[in-house]
Recover the amino acids of this structure.
């Protein structure tokens, strides 16, 4: 472009920050970045708690972590797609179509989530044995994977809902429910279970889907509340329009 030149004038004064754009980017992006940071911190805390059980448990968590990371790629991808498509539809004023995007995003994510969970329930050793040859580690990993894999179904809802919330510019809601579920449920539950006598990695693995379920409830409540609110506003606007038309006719 520099070599061939521009068809219009361009210089340093044309490069400046647009305050409204910067504000909108920060309102959406900052909560998402904080959410990712806090989630990663929570994983470190949970790992440190489980590490106190022993070397076998520590190795098992590492093995399952690799498997779950791969299994959650589809819902993560669909969540990103929901975010982009929701923003496009909201920008076009197609709020109903944006909700359909959320619906189908969850549906497609569930296909992969249910498959991953069912496979992990019946054939966990075929996955865990890829990363370890130690029988104890495999058996322990199987227990952890069987319970943790249920989260693959749960995140099919949460990731897509987070994408929808980001698309409508409400990523702060994603941050709030993530903090509540992670620091209010998952970490305390993991710590309490870890202190319980005779607890296994199967019980510890249940902390993930339980905390994600809390996120789902919060998201459902918020989305239902906003839907009802939008519906009431729509009805009120229709009443006003009808009154205006009647006034004109009279």
């Amino acid at each position: 472009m520099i070599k061939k030149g521009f068809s219009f004038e361009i210089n340093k004064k044309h490069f400046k920050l647009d305050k409204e754009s910067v504000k909108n980017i920060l309102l959406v992006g900052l909560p998402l970045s904080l959410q990712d940071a806090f989630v990663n911190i929570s994983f470190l805390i949970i790992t440190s708690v489980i590490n106190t059980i022993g070397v076998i448990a520590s190795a098992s968590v590492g093995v399952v972590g690799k498997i779950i990371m791969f299994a959650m790629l589809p819902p993560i991808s669909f969540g990103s797609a929901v975010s982009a498509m929701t923003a496009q539809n909201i920008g076009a004023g197609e709020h109903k179509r944006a909700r359909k995007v959320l619906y189908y995003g969850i549906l497609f994510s569930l296909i992969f989530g249910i498959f991953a969970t069912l496979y992990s329930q019946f054939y966990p050793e075929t996955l865990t044995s890829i990363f370890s040859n130690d029988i104890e580690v495999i058996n322990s990993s199987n227990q952890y994977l069987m319970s943790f894999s249920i989260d693959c179904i749960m995140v099919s809802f949460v990731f897509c809902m987070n994408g929808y919330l980001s698309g409508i510019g409400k990523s702060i809601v994603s941050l709030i429910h993530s903090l509540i579920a992670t620091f209010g449920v998952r970490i305390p539950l993991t710590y309490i279970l870890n202190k319980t006598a005779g607890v296994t990695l199967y019980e510890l693995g249940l902390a993930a889907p339980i905390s994600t379920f809390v996120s789902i409830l919060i998201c459902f409540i918020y989305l239902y509340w906003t839907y009802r609110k939008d519906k009431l506003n729509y009805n009120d606007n229709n009443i006003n329009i009808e009154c205006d038309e009647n006034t004109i006719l009279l």
The chain has one domain: 31-50+57-231. Residues 31-50+57-231 form one domain. Residues 68 and 149 are 7 Å apart (CA to CA). The mean pLDDT is 87.
